Amino acid sequence: MSADGKAVLDAAHAWLAQDPDSRTRAELQGLIEETDRGDAAAAAELADRFAGRLAFGTAGLRGELGAGSNRMNRVLVAQAAAGLAAFVLERAGGERTPSVVIGYDGRRNSDVFAQDSAELFAGAGLRAILLPRMLPTPVLAFAVRHLGADAGVMVTASHNPPNDNGYKVYLGGADDGAQIVSPADLEIAAHIQRIADAGDVGALPRSLGYETAPESLVDAYVAATAAVAPAPETAGGLSWVYTAMHGVGWDTLSRVLKAAGYPEPVPVTRQIDPDGTFPTVAFPNPEEPGAMDLAFEAARRSNADLVIANDPDADRLAVAVPDPHAPGGWRRLTGNQIGLLLGWRAARLAREADAPPGASLACSLVSSPGLKAVADHYGLDFHTTLTGFKWISRAPGIVFGFEEALGYLVNPDTVRDKDGISAAIAMLGLVTEARGRGESLSRVLAEFDATFGFFASGQIAIRVDDVSTIARIMTRLREQHPSSIGRVAIDRVDDLLDGVEDLPKGDVLRLWMTDGSRVIIRPSGTEPKLKIYLDVRGDSSDDARARLAALDEGARALLDEVG
Fold it and tell me: What is the sign, positive or negative, of the torsion defined by CA atoms of 230, 309, 250, 305?
């Protein structure tokens, strides 16, 4: 056996000795035995599981469930919880007992990881508060602020594949309940590594002295969210379909609907209850082809006006409208379309409320530039941020923020993160107000175009088996900037690694075209994908679509050339 092979086996045996989970112990023991018998496939699998550590960063942890340092499991979570506890205690400086609130969704092992975390936080001397049951991510984000906690943990992998899970971290105090950013992620990661280097997680102190948050906390979230858009009189008679995508959104959303006064939807019954196996979808993400097919079937049967979907942890929102020209008669709106409509609504409300100087709209740099047109129209400030709500939520004076990946922040006074439930309520408010004027949501979209311009957006996602492919493409594009995309010349290239405007440095290339179009290229932060974002502004809707199609064709040709 090679030295590398022996090192992998040694690491596997050390991991096995400290793993408290009988399922992953049996899984790992089987791989070790098969490797000892000379099984090459088992040896390769074992090597992959110990090829490194699942990295802790600004997205926390996220990865496939299974035994090993390169997977999500109870050993890794214990190390993360102990490392986070050390960071929180260090930050508090010994002057008081800091607190951490823990939430979890319906994915496999989410409850186990949350329970382990609560016991380890309590054992480390923190005040640990576990949410009363599986709940949406925005309830955890709300709880961090509502309880004045020093930190929060949400066990979720959001819309990732069924066998993934994750560990998302929020900070209170000066961070105001937002997700972590640097340097906090690096400091937490250093504490986690120290715990991992020490060895046996079984030696970490645990305590059952954690608290369970009262139902009144969920009641407070429901009340605050219902207040986002109380139902107008025109809400009666609205027919709409809702899917929770096998996630945890429905129980909370149903309570918010009742409090706000909206009619209940036609539920997609096969997807309404939490189920971590996600039996009806290959990929539990409303953006993925086929994920909303059952919702569209229900909409056709019920002759609905609208379809609304949350992702499994209910921090994202998808919306679809009737369209006789679309396959099956229904069309899912893009994340940019939803964001622009909700941003328009937020801007009107800000003006009506006589918002103070500095009130702003914000979106990630890959989201539609149409939001700046809205902000300018209403005299609001506008901020562009790096991707992710850890950045969007920190925009000065924010009254609304969004990113094109179906994330919307509509109530920053209570939740400093994307929130698919409050966004659903805001959308229902917008739709029912339009119905009162005899208008459909499609008509409101047309009014937006006529008011602010004909914006169109597209995206290309290149999924790879080897993530080094992405780095190679980005390097080639940096070494020799393209001079054009299709028939349109490139005016300038912004490389965010060099620092651009007031944006933090990032692995992003932004290409500005001579016709005003924009192309942004970046690696995905959570998946093995290269993402390319296309934005155009046309003289009409047909012109915008034609420009977008040409830009898409040119961008794909460029990727073929450098890939």
Answer: positive
Report the Cα 426 to chain-centroid distance in Å. Answer: 19
pLDDT digits (tens, 9 = 90+) for 244-287: 999 999 999 999 999 999 999 999 999 999 999 999 998 899 99
Catalytic residue among 158, 364, 422, 457: 158
360-364/381-385 β-pairing: parallel
The answer to whether 22 is a known catalytic residue is no
> One-letter amino acid identity for 167?
Y
d(CA 314, CA 151) in angstroms, rounded, equals 20
CA distances from 382 to 265, 347, 427, 534 (A): 35, 11, 22, 20
| Helices 441-452 + 370-377 axis angle, to 10 | 70
Residue type, 465: D
Helix residue ranges, H only, 135-238: 137-146, 184-198, 215-226
Taking a C-beta distance cutoff of 8 angstroms, is the pair 112, 102 a contact? no
pLDDT (0 to 100) of residue 273: 97
Q: Which domains does the chain have, with CATH numbers?
A: 52-213 (3.40.120.10), 215-452 (3.40.120.10), 454-562 (3.30.310.50)
Per the CB < 8 A criterion, the answer to whether 406 and 316 are in contact is: yes
Please state, in angstroms and rounded to a whole number, the distance separating the CA atoms of residues 302 and 291: 19
